[in-house]
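DM between two lab members

TW: hey, do you still have the FAD:protein FMN transferase entry open?
JB: yeah, one sec
JB: this one, 344 aa:
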Amino acid sequence: MASSSKKERGVKRRQVLQLFALAGAAGVLGVPLFGCDEAGMRVARRSQAMLGTVVNLTVYSRDREQAEAAVTATLARMAELEGRLSRFRGESEVGILNRTGTLEAAGDDLQDLLQLARRVSEASAGAFDVTMLPLLELYHRLADQPAVIAGEEGRAAIAAARRQVDFRGVRLEGGRVSLASGMAITLDGIAKGHIVDQGAATLAAHGCRQIYVEAGGDLLVKGGKPGRKPWRIGIRNPRPQIALPLPVISSDSLAVATSGDYYQPFSPDFRHHHIIDPRTGFSSPELAAVTVTAPTAALADALATASLALGAKQAADLLAAFPGCEGYFVSKELSVSQTAGFPV
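TW: and the structure you got?
JB:
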């Protein structure tokens, strides 16, 4: 995911510590907590720092040992994937690809992600693009300098970075991946969702059917809760200092991802943030947040990223091209809209 600056690492560490404080009741530092619900099911919860955030697992089972083995295996699988897909690790598959421009034998997970990313890139006319790393790194260097970004020097630098961005420059032939000259990729807008999906698959492989897997707002639930109760998922207010009633999603099985201008802002007014439209080099001025529901967390993750860049109308058209996908949009002015099938 290339090496991050000391400042970025410090910010991430503080964010993780804050999230641990919030997640303490769910089991801290990988220590599982168990209890019984009213139906007599065992409830296993565990939280662990990973992916620059905190991963939270909830598993219902009648067998405590099964649940403990499942969550341990799941966290190991998710950590393994982070080690192979992170751009911040030089010896990861993505790190090697970015450094050398070629990866001779990409793993199945990277191949699957690149294929899905290509689908979303083509469907969104380039609003989603894994080769946007040069733009993202430029904005990190100019963080909290909106005047520079808007000025002549900044615009020239953005134009130069955009010339290194084009999803069509990623070539996947068999297991071999190569990049056009000067390109580098980031899977920030899709890998976390994929890792959530794989966490859920690991729990299922261990016989767990009623599960909740969440990482930094990307989540997947399956099986409902005991007593035929659905999972309830709140939508975050992008401006918590302003009252904004938002709906709660209720579902037995669903993947959900949210992209917002507040996650990594590069200016105090949220005008510039980490979701950058690769086609313009700037963040879209329309939306503050997008929540997408989808069959998989990877697809929800990618579509939420693209939707924030596109704006509500074009995003609704994009989601319509993917069966089972719906969206909820919050504008900068805090007006809300949603696709017809959004599950609230």
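TW: got it. The domain at 93-179 is CATH 1.10.3980.10 (T-fold). The radius of gyration is 20 Å.
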